[in-house]
Amino acid sequence: MSGVVIDASTRAPIEGATVVVTRYDSALRESKEFTTDRRGFFADIALTPGAYLVTTSALGQLVTCIVNDVPYGVVRNVRIVLGTGLVPECKGTLVHFGVVDPDQLGSIYPV
Protein backbone atom coordinates (compact mmCIF):
# COMPACT_ATOMS: atom_id res chain seq x y z
CA MET A 1 0.00 0.00 0.00
CA SER A 2 1.16 3.50 -0.68
CA GLY A 3 -0.47 6.86 -0.44
CA VAL A 4 -0.34 10.59 -0.27
CA VAL A 5 -1.97 13.03 2.15
CA ILE A 6 -3.02 16.37 0.65
CA ASP A 7 -4.44 19.64 1.99
CA ALA A 8 -7.89 20.15 0.44
CA SER A 9 -7.67 23.93 0.24
CA THR A 10 -4.12 24.36 -1.10
CA ARG A 11 -3.68 20.94 -2.79
CA ALA A 12 -0.21 20.88 -1.20
CA PRO A 13 1.17 17.67 0.30
CA ILE A 14 0.99 17.43 4.08
CA GLU A 15 4.34 16.62 5.68
CA GLY A 16 4.28 14.98 9.11
CA ALA A 17 0.77 13.48 8.94
CA THR A 18 0.38 10.35 11.06
CA VAL A 19 -0.94 7.36 9.11
CA VAL A 20 -1.84 4.11 10.89
CA VAL A 21 -2.58 1.07 8.72
CA THR A 22 -4.50 -1.67 10.59
CA ARG A 23 -5.61 -5.01 9.19
CA TYR A 24 -9.21 -5.64 10.22
CA ASP A 25 -10.24 -8.85 8.42
CA SER A 26 -8.19 -11.20 10.58
CA ALA A 27 -7.86 -12.15 14.23
CA LEU A 28 -4.34 -10.72 13.93
CA ARG A 29 -4.92 -6.97 14.21
CA GLU A 30 -1.51 -6.04 12.87
CA SER A 31 -0.86 -2.30 12.74
CA LYS A 32 1.89 -0.13 11.33
CA GLU A 33 2.38 3.59 11.85
CA PHE A 34 3.92 5.97 9.32
CA THR A 35 4.70 9.66 9.14
CA THR A 36 4.36 11.30 5.74
CA ASP A 37 7.45 12.79 4.14
CA ARG A 38 7.75 16.28 2.60
CA ARG A 39 5.77 15.05 -0.41
CA GLY A 40 2.93 13.82 1.84
CA PHE A 41 3.91 10.27 0.90
CA PHE A 42 3.82 7.03 2.90
CA ALA A 43 4.29 3.41 1.80
CA ASP A 44 4.66 -0.18 2.89
CA ILE A 45 5.05 -2.76 0.16
CA ALA A 46 5.34 -5.66 2.60
CA LEU A 47 1.82 -5.73 4.06
CA THR A 48 0.09 -9.06 4.48
CA PRO A 49 -2.73 -9.40 1.93
CA GLY A 50 -6.12 -8.46 3.39
CA ALA A 51 -8.44 -5.59 4.23
CA TYR A 52 -7.16 -2.51 6.06
CA LEU A 53 -8.25 0.63 7.87
CA VAL A 54 -6.01 3.57 7.03
CA THR A 55 -6.37 6.17 9.78
CA THR A 56 -4.82 9.57 9.12
CA SER A 57 -4.35 12.46 11.52
CA ALA A 58 -3.38 15.91 10.21
CA LEU A 59 -4.61 19.53 10.23
CA GLY A 60 -6.72 18.83 13.30
CA GLN A 61 -8.71 16.10 11.53
CA LEU A 62 -8.86 12.35 11.90
CA VAL A 63 -10.09 10.31 8.94
CA THR A 64 -10.32 6.61 8.23
CA CYS A 65 -10.20 5.09 4.78
CA ILE A 66 -11.22 1.48 4.22
CA VAL A 67 -9.11 -0.47 1.74
CA ASN A 68 -11.10 -3.61 0.95
CA ASP A 69 -8.41 -5.73 -0.68
CA VAL A 70 -4.63 -5.62 -0.64
CA PRO A 71 -3.51 -8.68 -2.68
CA TYR A 72 -0.05 -10.16 -3.19
CA GLY A 73 1.96 -8.37 -5.84
CA VAL A 74 -0.33 -5.33 -6.23
CA VAL A 75 0.17 -1.92 -4.60
CA ARG A 76 -3.04 -0.19 -3.53
CA ASN A 77 -2.67 3.58 -3.83
CA VAL A 78 -4.61 5.78 -1.42
CA ARG A 79 -5.13 9.52 -1.77
CA ILE A 80 -6.27 11.20 1.44
CA VAL A 81 -7.52 14.79 1.25
CA LEU A 82 -7.89 16.73 4.51
CA GLY A 83 -8.68 20.32 5.37
CA THR A 84 -9.95 22.24 8.36
CA GLY A 85 -13.72 22.61 8.16
CA LEU A 86 -13.95 20.39 5.08
CA VAL A 87 -15.20 16.85 4.68
CA PRO A 88 -12.19 14.57 4.23
CA GLU A 89 -11.94 12.34 1.17
CA CYS A 90 -10.37 8.96 0.46
CA LYS A 91 -9.67 8.02 -3.14
CA GLY A 92 -8.24 4.99 -4.90
CA THR A 93 -9.15 1.56 -6.25
CA LEU A 94 -11.19 -0.35 -3.64
CA VAL A 95 -10.77 2.58 -1.23
CA HIS A 96 -13.75 4.04 0.65
CA PHE A 97 -14.29 6.73 3.24
CA GLY A 98 -15.17 5.15 6.58
CA VAL A 99 -16.78 6.46 9.72
CA VAL A 100 -15.14 4.60 12.56
CA ASP A 101 -15.96 5.21 16.22
CA PRO A 102 -12.74 4.78 18.23
CA ASP A 103 -14.72 4.13 21.42
CA GLN A 104 -16.43 1.11 19.89
CA LEU A 105 -13.45 -0.21 17.94
CA GLY A 106 -10.62 0.61 20.31
CA SER A 107 -8.83 -2.68 19.72
CA ILE A 108 -8.34 -1.95 16.01
CA TYR A 109 -8.26 1.83 16.11
CA PRO A 110 -4.82 2.65 17.45
CA VAL A 111 -4.74 6.42 16.82
Describe this structure in words.
This protein is mainly beta. It has a single domain (2-98), classed as Immunoglobulin-like (Sandwich). It has no helices and 9 strands.
If you compute it from the alpha carbons, what radius of gyration comes out, rounded to the nearest whole angstrom? Answer: 13 Å
How much of the polypeptide forms β-strand, as a percent range?
A: over 45%
Structural class: mainly beta
CATH fold category name? Immunoglobulin-like
So, CATH architecture?
Sandwich
Tell me the number of strands: 9
For CATH, the homologous superfamily is named as Transthyretin/hydroxyisourate hydrolase domain
Number of domains: 1
What's the order of the H and E elements? EEEEEEEEE
Please write the CATH class name.
Mainly Beta
| Total count of helical runs of at least 4 residues | 0
Euclidean distance between termini CA atoms: 19 Å
Form type: globular
Helix content: under 10%
Mean pLDDT: 80
Short précis:
The chain is mainly β.
Topology (SSEs and partners):
Elements: E1 2-7, E2 18-23, E3 31-35, E4 41-43, E5 50-58, E6 61-70, E7 77-82, E8 89-91, E9 95-98
Parallel strand pairs: 1-7
Antiparallel strand pairs: 1-4, 2-3, 2-5, 5-6, 6-9, 7-8
